[in-house]
Amino acid sequence: MKKTKSLRLLCGIALLPACLGVTCALLDAFTAVNRADSAISSTSAALLGGCAVWMLVWFFLPRPARSYVLAHELTHALYALLCGADVSRIRVSASGGSVSLSKSNVWITLSPYFFPFYTFVIVLFYLGLSVFVKPVPCKPLWFFLVGFTWGFHLCFTINSLLIHQPDIQVYGRIFSYVFIYFLNLSVIALWMIATTPVKTVTLAASFLTNTRSIYALIAEGSTTLLLNIFEVLR
Description:
This protein is mostly helical. The chain has a domain at 41-163. It contains ten helices and two strands; from the N terminus they run H-H-H-H-E-E-H-H-H-H-H-H. Strands 1-2 form a two-stranded antiparallel sheet. Helix 1 (2-14) runs parallel beside helix 9, helix 2 (16-36) runs parallel beside helix 9 (173-195) and helix 3 crosses helix 7 (139-161). The chain is globular.
């Protein structure tokens, strides 16, 4: 058990440069979009508008805690089914919830913290409607709903991570936070690709270049530090 915890801690630390890499890649993409076109697209405006409206709800209206708990437990159940586990007895209340599963893994345990359940439902409805109706009417409204539900996910995720979470304790704070951070930013990257001129290849290349540079910088710094220590001790 101790070896497993230590291994997860080391994996979390080793993946920190990848988190910095995806952060730098997104910043590069935002900069490129702003330089290419100062006018924001209607879909991006709707997406940001939905997030903004949710922030008003978050700060000035009662928070729908039960809705978040429901999404949290359903996400556990969804990923459990995808991983071949049996699901039974989902319990939901405003103060918490639970779901009985036949097995668990890192994807099942941490899925509610990186998978925006209600956003997924909105996108699923949109794609289903697009099969029968072309073009789908009120496209900005759909993106507004995506932004609103995505804001819901991010706010509740950050809020829940600030308190004790048994899910996080299973895999340790360092590994869990790194894993969650990386996947949430990956979702943001996908939305950038869907709503801006940014290309998948460009964003991926930026991520790899930045991550490689960060690892190289750390390796160089570590080597220099070890050589200095060796010189002092010799």
